[in-house]
Design a protein that fits this description.
Radius of gyration: 20 Å
Order of helices and strands: EEEHEHEHEEEHHEHEHEHEH
CATH superfamily of one domain: ATPase, nucleotide binding domain
Structural class: alpha/beta
Distance between the termini: 31 Å
Bound molecules: adenosine-5'-diphosphate, magnesium ion
Largest sheet: 5 strands, mixed
Shape: globular
Number of helices: 9
Strand content: 15-25%
Length: about 280
């Protein structure tokens, strides 16, 4: 059970119920506490909330309506993208980062890309390649389903035998773009005599590479389109996942943009929902 016990003084609770995880931000006496649990435990979350008698609740995310239907008292609701960008602004201020215009990329189950300027937020687009892709492809390729196991094994894998780099194609010649860029994810396996020797570590590292590079590339293109160079990356896909951060960071920098990873960034939606209750 991940819920911390709370006493009975008044609390504001923001809940972001997404495709994979339920993120919770509790505000009591000006301090925020965070928790998360799998979306399969939505009913459990609802009965926890139903058991609190001194709490104001605001929900957001794709499963917000479903969660609301399980609550015995009325709860407020806020549009997910508004909640998320308000949460980002809160964390930026808290970390004394004075960015005013930036791309916001939320790598959740899928990936959503936004342009934020002061308090204006506009969804630019997204890609279905996201944290859910890490989980799904990892399962297909290795049979593993546990997030922590996938992330820790991926950190030990080399991508050399599986991914085709630009330098592999331009063998012996000077490539027109950095040779270290991936020319084609997974395409190097076509030159292997046998794929039986590929390890789970290698396969998982390449899944992370595919997702990280796709997320970074689409974000950098959005930044160019909007005329900004800062990209803020949030979402639970970065939790404990230094390899994903590293891939996203290096690819973003290589393409001339500046990445920022926010601590507790996965809770931005929940924070925005929570702040809504105190009129922020
Ligand atoms: P959503 O809002 O769509 O639920 P999140 O921002 O919570 O998305 O990100 C979900 C992704 O986070 C998963 O697809 C997975 O890659 C990663 N993740 C991090 N921690 C876990 C976990 N404990 N269980 C499952 N997935 C996790
Ligand atoms: Mg989400």
């Amino acid at each position: 059970m991940i819920w911390k016990r709370v006493d009975n003084s008044m609390m504001n609770i923001g809940i972001d119920a997404g495709g994979t995880l339920i993120k919770v931000a509790c505000k009591k006496n000006d301090s925020l506490e965070f928790n998360k649990l799998p979306v399969s435990q939505l009913e459990h979350a609802a009965s926890w909330i139903n058991g609190l008698d001194r709490a104001d609740i605001c929900v957001t995310g794709g499963k917000a309506a479903l969660l609301k239907s399980l609550l015995k008292n009325k709860a407020a609701e806020i549009v997910e993208f508004t909640a998320t960008s308000n949460g980002v602004r809160y964390l930026l201020e808290k970390n004394a980062i004075s960015e005013k215009a930036y791309i916001l990329t939320n790598v959740g189950t899928g990936t959503s890309i936004h342009y934020v300027e002061n308090s204006r937020e506009q969804r630019i687009g997204g890609t279905g390649v996201g944290g859910g892709t890490i989980m799904g492809l990892s399962r297909l390729l290795t049979g593993l389903t546990d997030y922590e196991a996938i992330v820790s094994l991926s950190a030990k894998g080399s991508r050399d035998r599986i991914d085709l780099k630009v330098s592999h194609i331009y063998e012996g010649a000077v490539p027109p773009i950095p040779g270290d860029l991936t020319a084609s994810n997974f395409a190097n396996v076509l030159s292997l005599d046998s794929i039986d020797q590929l390890t789970k570590e290698e396969l998982l590292a390449c899944v992370i590479g595919l997702v990280g590079e796709t997320v970074a590339t689409t974000s950098v293109l959005a930044a160019g389109q909007c005329g900004v160079s800062t990209i803020i990356f949030i979402g639970s896909s970065f939790i404990g996942n230094d390899l994903l951060k590293e891939v996203v960071q290096s690819y973003t920098k290589l393409r001339g943009a500046s990445p920022i990873f926010l601590e507790n960034g996965e809770y931005c939606g929940a924070i925005g929902a929570c702040l809504q209750l105190s009129g922020h």
